[in-house]
Design goal:
46% of the residues are buried. The strands form four sheets. The chain has a six-stranded parallel beta sheet with strand order 3-2-1-4-5-6, sandwiched between helices. Strands 7-10-11 form a three-stranded antiparallel beta sheet. It has a three-stranded antiparallel beta sheet with strand order 12-13-14. The chain is built from nine helices and 14 strands. It has two domains: 139 residues, Rossmann fold; 163 residues, Lactate dehydrogenase/glycoside hydrolase, family 4, C-terminal (L-2-Hydroxyisocaproate Dehydrogenase, Chain A, domain 2, Alpha-Beta Complex). Helix 2 links the parallel strand 2 and strand 3. The protein is α/β, with parallel strands linked by helices. The mean pLDDT is 95.
């Protein structure tokens, strides 16, 4: 079976994702679409020149929406860029209109695979993609809090002196300012993080500082280099691998909740089991009362934005 991915958006995030796909040998064919066709040609040439060093060959080409007809996954990174000082939620109005056209073109091509959305604000845009596409909710996924969780795991790993892969901790809620660290269910190499919060002097303050840095990391990166790209590109590649290889891997993505965590009719970041059919199930973490309240607040903020954008029927 040939794994085919169509990438819509050849900006910094899209190119970082494409590079991760090729470098990891995750797909057989990658088609890249962008309104800047000259840039696409250059990126495709550059990527193809690296295929010889990849673990397996990937056919990279400049694509059209017709390529969506037989694509397994369509990944959307296109949209208005987040400006310095601008929150992800400020992007809603501009990107909803952009998405109406993009998703319409994808579906007109006869697409029936999985839509993976990274455009910000990703929870709202995933909801928009679901509404505009008419696809089942399990086949429309946002990158959600995968990047936020990776940032948290990396910094906790530095604090404890262990590899990030041995840190099990998730950020849930909005991919943005109201996100919530699910610390009560976190562990470091199997040892509960909660055990240290009050037992180790100053540890709670250290963890709070790490979460604050996690929450504001994007703003720091945007101020320094104009955009975030590598972290989210690799997060998208990890999600893609879980989908195409039917891994049943639990990853923190934005998916439609239908009563889980007491939230309904809303895309929001939570751990979900991913496989070839998309989201197979939602993992409900055991949350503290404070975490539950914070998640409820995050959901209320997102729900208000969805309503204001006119996305609910």
């Amino acid at each position: 079976m040939s794994d085919r991915v169509v990438l819509i958006g050849a900006g910094d995030v899209g190119v970082a994702y494409a590079y991760a796909l090729v470098n990891q040998g995750l797909v057989h064919e990658l088609s890249v679409i962008d309104i800047n066709e000259q840039k696409v040609r250059g990126e495709v040439m550059d990527l193809n020149h690296g295929v010889v060093w990849a673990p397996s060959p990937t056919r990279v080409k400049a694509g059209t929406y017709a390529d969506c007809a037989d694509a397994d996954v369509v990944v959307i990174t296109a949209g208005a860029a987040q400006r310095p000082g601008e929150t992800r939620l400020d992007l809603v109005g501009r990107n909803v209109q952009i998405f109406r056209g993009i998703v319409g073109s994808v579906m007109e091509a006869g697409f029936s695979g999985i839509l993976l959305v990274a455009t910000n604000p990703v929870d709202v845009m995933a909801y928009a993609a679901w509404r505009f596409s008419g696809l089942p909710a399990e086949r429309v996924i946002g990158s959600g809090t995968a990047l936020d969780s990776a940032r948290l795991r990396f910094m906790l790993g530095q604090l404890y002196g262990v590899a990030p892969g041995s840190v099990h901790a998730a950020i849930i809620g909005e991919h943005g300012d109201t996100e919530v660290p699910a610390l009560s269910s976190a562990n470091i190499a199997g040892a509960p993080l909660s055990r240290d919060l009050d037992a180790v002097p100053g540890r709670r303050e250290e963890i709070e500082r790490i979460f604050d840095e996690t929450r504001t990391a994007a703003y720091q990166i945007i101020d320094a280099k104009g955009s975030t790209s590598y972290g989210i590109g690799m997060a998208l590649a990890r999600i893609t691998r879980a989908l195409l290889r039917d891994e049943d891997a639990a990853l923190p993505v934005s998916t439609l909740l239908s009563g889980q965590y007491g939230i309904d009719d809303l895309y929001i970041g939570v751990p979900a089991v991913l496989g070839r059919s998309g989201v197979k199930s939602v993992v409900e973490l055991s949350l503290s009362a404070d975490e539950s309240e914070a998640l409820k607040h995050s959901a209320e903020v997102l729900s208000g934005i969805v309503e204001d954008a006119g996305l609910r029927r």
